[in-house]
TrEMBL record:
This is Signal recognition particle protein. It comes from Maribellus luteus. Its EC number is 3.6.5.4. Composed of three domains: the N-terminal N domain, which is responsible for interactions with the ribosome, the central G domain, which binds GTP, and the C-terminal M domain, which binds the RNA and the signal sequence of the RNC. SUPFAM superfamilies: P-loop containing nucleoside triphosphate hydrolases, Signal peptide-binding domain. The gene is ffh. GO terms for molecular function: 7S RNA binding; GTP binding; GTPase activity. It catalyses: GTP + H2O = GDP + phosphate + H(+).
Length: 440
């Protein structure tokens, strides 16, 4: 799903690699590429333009924290904008009525009947509801048969009236029957046509006014791209529906419908169909979908965590200390504490794209810093401030005090010394804050 779009977006972010901050000039190419990627994914032109304009405004307005690289910041901004384009937050269906009545709308072949079965199944299994299905597609005996088969598979009754060609009457009678028999959700499947036509619209509008549904869902095949968006608009103008169901997202869909439909009809996507099987149904979470489109949900959380934890003032202070070569073990301890605040080491490492899978079965010691901390805590205040005074005798004492051995103490002192030298060189030359950010 959306593979092409994901790859293209990922490539566009790479252009910002190595840039110190986001500027009007260096972001221009990235934005152009994002827009092209969206257009190639069959996103409506106006929406793609507005999207990149919004991203640009946010990117330039953002204070670039030293803990976050511009490429990563762009990923986060684009992710947030994608989620907001798709509605921002999760929108549930309305099931208050007694019984709650749900009316399906959409073209023939969009997946209405399949979705009706999937929804009944989900409501029964996950919400403990007692649904009833209604066969309102009176023109196609095969459609009625299909619904009956689905109903049997999931153990949900299907209301049909043989010979009755009036879907309005059938729907009304079905609701009465549901009331009498204690079913609390009535799902009305309706007839679709291959294209929007007046008779179909009149019919479904008549059903709507006769049964006054709690929820009207518009079902659409996501593979049809911009056609899906146009059809949605026509149905919405006529029915003022409550939500969209995007089917066939398991196919080779480019993503255009998922990304444009909300902005065009201003109605939320509520479900996505991801296969022909009855279980292949997901409720729609815009933020999770944005994660999936970018294929880098993990890095988004990592950036968020770094943003939460990074202390700009502390970074400035450290930079000064490094320049003056007064970075000591107390500063080192603070650095460790900051990294630890980001969460368990395994979690933090796992958020780096590609690392999650690689370390899944690995045993990463959450106490990796424990020895280092113990060694530093065993130093006197003077030793921490001024590591140069730690001679052989002191090393032995520190090793004993921390329950480690002298080799470990030596190793830490050597590493500390080398790190300090390297950082000093960098701080005299380039931007040390960026390097520190990279280390986190
Ligand atoms: P209707 O005419 O709107 O009632 O559409 P159907 O429910 O009969 O679906 C048309 C075809 O699309 C059927 O072959 C379904 O199996 C298939 N279909 C429906 N939803 C999905 C889905 O989410 N993924 C895939 N791959 N196929 C689907």
């Amino acid at each position: 799903m959306f593979e092409n779009l994901s790859d293209r977006l990922e490539r566009s972010f790479k252009m910002l690699k190595g840039e110190g901050k986001i500027t009007e000039i260096n972001v221009a190419e990235t934005l152009k590429d994002i827009r092209r990627a969206l257009l190639d994914a069959d996103v409506n032109f106006k929406i793609a333009k507005k999207f990149t304009d919004d991203v640009k405004e946010k990117a330039l307005g953002q204070e670039v924290l030293t803990a976050v690289k511009p490429g990563q910041l762009m990923v986060k901004i684009v992710k947030d904008e994608l989620a907001s384009l798709m509605g921002g937050t999760f929108a549930d269906i309305e099931l208050k009525g007694k019984p709650a009545v749900i009316l399906m709308s959409g073209l023939q072949g969009s997946g209405k009947t399949t979705f009706s079965g999937k929804l009944a199944n989900m409501l029964k299994k996950k919400k403990g509801r007692h649904p009833m299905l209604v066969a309102g597609d009176v023109y196609r005996p095969a459609a009625i048969e299909q619904l009956k088969v689905l109903g049997e598979q999931i153990g949900v009754p299907v209301y049909t009236e043989e010979g009755n060609m009036d879907p309005v009457k059938i729907a009304k009678a079905a609701i009465q029957e549901a009331k009498a028999k204690g079913y609390d959700v009535v799902i009305v499947d309706t007839a679709g046509r291959l294209a929007v036509d007046e008779q179909m619209m009149n019919e479904i509008a008549a059903i709507k006014s006769a049964i006054n549904p709690d929820e009207i869902l518009f079902v659409v095949d996501s593979m049809t791209g911009q056609d899906a968006v146009n059809t949605a608009k026509e149905f919405n103008d006529r029915l003022d529906f409550d939500g969209v169901v995007l089917t066939k997202l398991d196919g080779d869909t480019r993503g255009g419908a998922a990304l444009s439909i909300r902005a065009v009809v201003e109605k939320p996507i509520k479900f996505v169909g991801t296969g022909e099987k009855l279980e292949a149904l997901d409720v729609f979470h815009p933020d999770r979908m944005a994660d999936r489109i970018l294929g880098m949900g993990d890095i988004v959380s990592l950036v968020e965590k770094a943003q939460e934890q990074f202390d700009e003032e502390e970074a400035q202070r450290l930079q000064k200390k490094l320049a003056k070569n007064t970075f000591n073990f107390n500063d080192f301890l603070k650095q460790i504490a900051q990294i630890k605040k980001m969460g368990s080491l395994k979690d933090v490492v796992g958020m780096i794209p590609g690392m999650g899978k690689a370390i899944k079965n690995m045993d990463i010691d959450d106490d990796a810093f424990k020895h280092i901390e113990a060694i530093i805590y065993s130093m006197t205040a003077e030793e921490r401030e001024n590591p140069a005074i730690i001679n052989g005798g002191r090393r032995k004492r520190i090793a004993n005090g921390s329950g480690t051995d002298i080799q470990e103490v030596n190793r830490l002192l050597k590493q500390f010394d080398e790190t300090r030298k390297m950082m000093r060189m960098v701080s005299q030359g380039k931007n040390v804050q960026r390097m520190m950010a990279g280390m986190q």
